[in-house]
Write the structure tokens for this entry.
Amino acid sequence: MITAEQKPIQEIRDMISPYKKILVLGCNSCVAECAAGGEKETAMLASALRMAAKMNEEDVLIEEKAIERQCVKDFVILLDDIIDQYDAVLSLGCGAGVQAVGDMFYEVPVIPALNTEFLGETKEQGLWLENCLGCGDCMLYYFGGICPLARCSKQLLNGPCGGSMEGRCEVDPDMPCAWQMIIDRLSRFGALERLEQVYPPKDWSKKQGVGPRRIQREDQQR
Amino acid sequence: MSRLRKVLDSGEFAVTAECGPPKGADPDAVLRKAELLKDKVDSINVTDNQTAIVRMSSLAACSLLKSAGLDPVLQMVVRDRNRIALQSDILGASAIGIRNVLCLSGDHQVFGNQPQSIGVFDLDSIQFLQVVKGMRDEAVILGGERLETPPDLFIGAAANPFADPLSFRVVRLAKKAAAGADFIQTQCIYNLERFGTWLKMARDRGLTEKVYILGGVTPLKSAGMAKYMKNRVAGMDVPDEVVKRMEGVPEGKQREEGIRICVETIQALKEMPGVKGVHIMAIEWEEAVGEIVDQAGLLPRPTLE
């Protein structure tokens, strides 16, 4: 899932200040799971903005709506009937959602209400962890299912560094050392010898070497 | 040719020290430290923006040391440069006569004065060792393109016998040796027992025959410093006895005690099979190095052809 957090309310108010009719637009997918931009958070943000506007005697219309996915055209197009009523959209989608909505409704400014963070897992209620970089060339097999690129602070493919102490990372003692986890997990599988080899430099061209990435599949195109 | 390599190849017990470049552009700040260390040690490591604090570049400070007649060890971290810049600096270093390089990961940027910077970590320290070795021994860069003139460098790496997990520390040393390290400088040793355990594991795997191991030491300036290193510096192992010993002498005498502990550690290291030298990291206290080397019976330094 893609995780995000809401921006400070003042930053949001500053960005929407030139507009009079604003649609606060939630997204019921990833950002709903991480309690940042689903239906509930959208309603809460919209009412907080209405209240702030009222207290400051600002004459603005703030309405809300949530769609299933802001990053998929088939869902964004459902806004076609109502979009003309607004002069700006405040999106609680991830960065991809904000841009997809903006792409479809080119004349309308789409303002981000969230800071998009990472590809993560919901570890427990209220705790999300980054554990995938989306590098385009998955190496999890070699490292016991734990990604050193996403989860080691120094992205070492041949760790652990000298700052691993009692299973903790030197960068933040609340953070486990990914390499300790890798060693423990591979020991469990009896596959520790996988770490005796020197892993070669990562091929970053799969991630950023050719500019923005695209996946194009003819079998899926119509 | 690298003086450090000559000393180690000749079987002499090598002595290296460390010189942190200034937070400024004054060449004399480097040359003053050079003067303190000259004839006291074989080679001088120049740190590369250590603890992620911006300082004069290691390459430039090495060049100054070289011009003062010393044998610098260029420390290079993979935190700040991608593989293009690292390989380019390796060629540049060799071109200006630097003959030693120490390949490191580097302290994480969060610890320094630029915590908003991006950490590059395009290569890790072991991959970097492999790249430098390939450049030197096969005259190729990453990807296989040939170099007209390969760099001439004695290649070093770091090892921390005190970090966890202990069983894997020697695996990592083996990987560094396989990747291309000619010599190893260790984290500061205060816990000789743990160091001995690690060294035995290294000997058992035949690693002390493959790489020259230089034990790292840092003289303590005060009991406060001992406690700080024990509690605050990740990857550091300062036993309680050492802290107590520092606390047991009055403040005005703590520096002397720190030097005494350091000298005793060096003497113990000299007797340990597999240790081929010592690396003295007197942090912003280069004045102490001459005294330590002298008291440890390591002067004069050998003269070599």
User: Anything to note?
Assistant: Chain A is about 25% helix and 25% strand. The interface with chain B takes residues 153-167, 170-171, 177, 180, 183, 195-196, 198-202, 204 of chain A (CB under 8 Å).
